[in-house]
Prior knowledge:
255 residues
Amino acid sequence: MIRHTFSILDGAGEKTEKRLWENGITSWDDFLDSDSVPFISSDNKILYDAMLGQYKEDLHNKNEKIFVRDIKKTEHWRFFEIFSGNAVCLDIETNGMAASAGGYPTVVGFYNGFEYKSLVMHEDLTWENIYNELSSYKYLITFYGSVFDMPFLFKRYPQLKDSLLHFDLCIAARRLGIKGGLKKLEQSLNIIRDDDIIGMNGFDAVKLWSNYKHGNSESLETLIKYNRDDTVNLFYLAEHIYGKLKESSGIKAYL
């Protein structure tokens, strides 16, 4: 999708993007190969050529940093096809308190499409280990993570930096008119969890951590299992929501 995107250019929007598509300019290459575009001034054509030329090179080299810098998060979904092989899903559980009032993450889960990994407080959950895990990837997938998970981690661990392209599935789903939380979205797609964690929510995760702290080791196992499903299911949801967003853009009608 990103190679068909022009709304990221300075002064351009979705209306300009669709006008370009309607005129047969459906990709960055089409734009760069055109000597002129009727409704784009010559000055802007020069500017856009330079921007798209640089973006094309950085996309080829999988240099996500320039896109993190230049493109607003709400448009990061457009990079999913390119960076899905370098993506990680993340979900956190907490002790139920705000990060500014003694809150801390209890479990941080990661899933790269093949392997799930969890970091647990008082065991291996440190800012260094979170950093090392995230630094292996270029693209982050969360559900409401741009509002909760990542700000929580940044507040708790100021050493961490916002350095990845970020596909927030909750924000993207709302853009499609889909409301509700992660569990409701899973149900609509017939994603079934194991019996022992069906119906669990964030409050239950807080209780499980409390029970673990009071000596119930099985509670930690259940908490990690709950986090695992929260994290692993994000990859399937990302594929689904990306497809819906691409369809809603209208680009398929011009290809």
